[in-house]
Design brief:
The structure holds two protein chains of two kinds. Chain A is mainly beta. Chain A is built from no helices and twelve strands. In chain A, the strands form three sheets. In chain A, strands 2, 5, 6, 10, 11 and 12 form a six-stranded mixed β-sheet that branches. By secondary structure, chain B is mainly β. Chain B is built from no helices and eleven strands. Chain B is globular. The termini of chain B are far apart. The relative contact order of chain B is 0.32. The chains are: A mainly beta, B mainly beta. Chains A and B meet through strand 5, strand 6, strand 10 and strand 11 of A and strand 5 and strand 10 of B.
Chain lengths: 115, 118
Amino acid sequence: AQTVTQSQPEMSVQEAETVTLSCTYDTSESDYYLFWYKQPPSRQMILVIRQEAYKQQNATENRFSVNFQKAAKSFSLKISDSQLGDAAMYFCAYRRASGTYKYIFGTGTRLKVLA
Amino acid sequence: ETGVTQTPRHLVMGMTNKKSLKCEQHLGHNAMYWYKQSAKKPLELMFVYSLEERVENNSVPSRFSPECPNSSHLFLHLHTLQPEDSALYLCASSQVGAATFPLTDTQYFGPGTRLTVL
């Protein structure tokens, strides 16, 4: 069965600094998608970044980038120039490329941004 | 209204009550999802509807009953709940491909309903 593990329940970063959130997953599939979602306090969960497993190039969205290591089954999120608005729960998620609607989520990492 | 909306935002109910959660998506998507979010646990997928047909039902107790009357609306009917059912219930929607499903869909989430069962 596929699993997603986020080993850091909580992280802190100083404003304007860089932080990396870890995510590992377990699957026997070769084709899948990986996601990072952000859930600010009392606000909606939104997609931060998505990676297709068949793409070797790491996805980037402005200050957010991933380090996708397929062989190691690792998918970390790097946030550069951290801002107060980045404070939130961050969830890593996995989904097979086809044949299912099911997403597998990790338990989340709470990110605190210190002014 | 834009995106995915959910009502009510907060709900307190007794174990003998019957209530319903409502979700509406304004994105033209064809798949809708119910998740349960409990503290320190991964999001649990409960139900998935694609083209108004239930395609996933992850061993959810029968006291939770979903309904999808059309592609824009999703309900979760609740009856005889237990205190351990207290959680944040999230609705999401996505656009899934017809030929190769589910394509490169991204889920869009609603704000959730905070449910407390006394």
